[in-house]
Specification:
The complex is a heterodimer.
Chain A: E1 7-8, E2 15-29, H1 30-33, E3 46-48, E4 55-58, E5 69-77, H2 92-106, E6 134-140, H3 142-145, E7 148-149, E8 155-159, E9 170-174, E10 185-187, E11 190-196, E12 204-209, E13 214-218, H4 248-254, H5 257-265, E14 268-288, E15 295-296, E16 302-303, E17 306-307, E18 319-327, E19 333-345, E20 351-358
Antiparallel strand pairs in A: 2-14, 3-4, 4-5, 5-6, 6-13, 7-14, 8-9, 8-14, 10-11, 11-12, 12-13, 14-20, 16-17, 18-19
Chain B: E1 12-16, H1 18-26, E2 33-37, H2 59-62, E3 80-81, E4 93-96, E5 111-114, H3 117-126, E6 134-136, E7 146-151, H4 161-169, E8 177-183, E9 189-191, E10 198-201, E11 207-210, E12 221-222, E13 229-235, E14 237-238, E15 260-269, H5 285-290, E16 292-295, E17 304-316, E18 322-334
Parallel strand pairs in B: 5-6, 5-18
Antiparallel strand pairs in B: 4-7, 7-15, 8-13, 8-17, 9-15, 10-11, 12-13, 14-15, 16-17, 17-18
Classes of the chains: A mainly beta, B mainly beta.
Chain lengths: 359, 335
Amino acid sequence: MPVQNYEILNPNTDVTTTRTLLHEFIPVTGTILSATYGTYPNEGNIKNFTHGMFQSVYDYPYLSSSANHIFDITMGYDEGSALSASSGYTMQKKKINIYNQFAQVLLGYTGSNNQVEIFESDLDYGDDNRQMKECYFVNFSRLLSKDQVKPGSFSITLGVGTWAQSLTTRKTLTDASASVTKGTKTTPGGEYGVLYSGSNADSRCGLIFYEAGIAVISGSVMGTGVDGSTAVAQFYNDKDGAATNLTWLQSFVSSSISGNCDALRHRVYNLSYNNTTEINSTIYFCRVPHNKYNYSSNPTYTSASKITVKNKASDQPVSYITTVGLYNTANELLAVAKLSEPLRKSPETEITLRVRLDY
Amino acid sequence: MAFLDNSGDIILDAVLTDVGRQRLSQGNFSIRKFALGDDEIQYNLYDKNNPSGSAYYDLEILQTPVEVAHTRASNIQYGLISLTSPNVLYIPDLVLNEKTSQSIIKYNKLILLAVNEQTKTKLVDSSGVDPKYILKANTQQPGRSILVESGLDTTDVKGTAINRTTYLQSVNMMDNTFSIALDSRFFNGVWGTGNASTFTNDALGNFKIYFGPLSKPTALTPSKSLLSFNVTTARGAPNLIYYYGASTPDTSESALQGPRGTVLKLNLNVPSPDLTTAAGGARSDLWGKFGKLSQTAITGKSQKYDIIDTFILITGNATGRSIQVPIRLLRYVSG
């Protein structure tokens, strides 16, 4: 039956709101991405689609209900790229469409002729310097990235060795120069930071969009080094096609989107980032005065009408709190909080129970 | 469900209830007050005579594992209450009175509720059940019906007028009204204590017990704690049976042994004609869904009855004390 005694909560003194950012470390090892759940490139945790425009990566064979979506990979190039000069390249239109889609969502437009901006590996995307016209896009699932990727926490290590020993030589891209207070730029797609593969300015080779949870990696990261590294000669071994041992540029031109995604997966040594969950909380301070809630209507509270916890009338009444019910003015129970252990209440004690509801 | 981890600091596990989520979606989620519960606590574990000292009195209680919060089921069935005086030693109980000529008496731990006249007749005439065990539903003047007393059921305090004032009235523990929760699928109302009710005795041992026609109490509203239940409020009449030390003791008609506060007389209404059709009539599917069809309800008798077992919950609105009354709905079928 309904409880008998309610205590009014004063909205000015008993209720407050807070905002908390919760971060989790998300490590993804490269072995999950390649050849763990089957034979490369047809692993059970890699989902390809008939439209062929992107590839989904799961942490377990995706036909299992236990599988969790980790991220999607795709690639594309701008219509102003040298790769667009000749027609007839494999999936050329779709690759251009993919690039434009990400550019318009993440960067917006130039302001003239409805032209989309072009990705640049710096914090000034309007100056046309350091343009990245051929890119891989890694879209992290909402399950893992939650509300956003934490600035300054992203890292991806790629193998830049030969195809057969792709991971023996590695390159790590990080956004270490970014943080929650500096080193980021805001675009229509949210804040982004620059990915560096080294310490000098020339090592910039990608972007990470924090709110969108999308990493944009320049294809040139496998090319003749902007950061002084040598080009990866055997970027992709297209076993199903006529060509083998393609450079990244050759792969962009002649391989399908899925093929390029396979090539990138084959070279991911690991990646990690911290996600961010924004928790908005309302805290109710349930103040229990010394002279209230000292008795109970629990049937075991009396034996032959006599209060069980008393020997004589002058003994202090005692009750034990296990539950806090939160009600509206119509006495409807809207939320309930349980204590992990009973809390003793008597006229000698005043208690403030801090009940937090997270949204 | 599970128990909460109680190995470390005290934590609070808070969840929105179904109603809370509903109100949130409607944009009128507004928490304005709180109440406290102790449903898991068994106060009889309080060992107030523990020879090791007061620190050991509630050792077992404090070790009670607490379940995680539920979103649907009732989370606070009883609740902690505030009484103005810290010196209260006795709290009234609600007790089913089976002693007076107005009281229905439980038959094998259940109150038999005949849903129609045919069933009552068959129970008495064919199945040989004494009428004192049979409550006839849907009537304002049932004769015998459910009688509940509120007061102290203790031999420590005599049931005198002075003690009634001291132990009940002066500490605001007179249940002048009662909340009755009943399953909305089987009941569509109750008849409560009438205005012309008398429940008293005198020093010579004479009892005057009269309730007259029952009255229709307040409208039903959905229960806020029991699923599928409705709640209504009925008034209680003054319970003026006192201890006089007479040869006919006060307890010969009262179920309480100490000071008495109020008394509630109650009959139940079932949906008609849904549940009240006579044998051969259209049988409501409620009988099959929630009960048993064509049962030999009375041991050794061949008559067949449809039965539904349920309960009603009666709570004193001043004391918060409650009593759960088991009810068996009976409908004659054959034999």
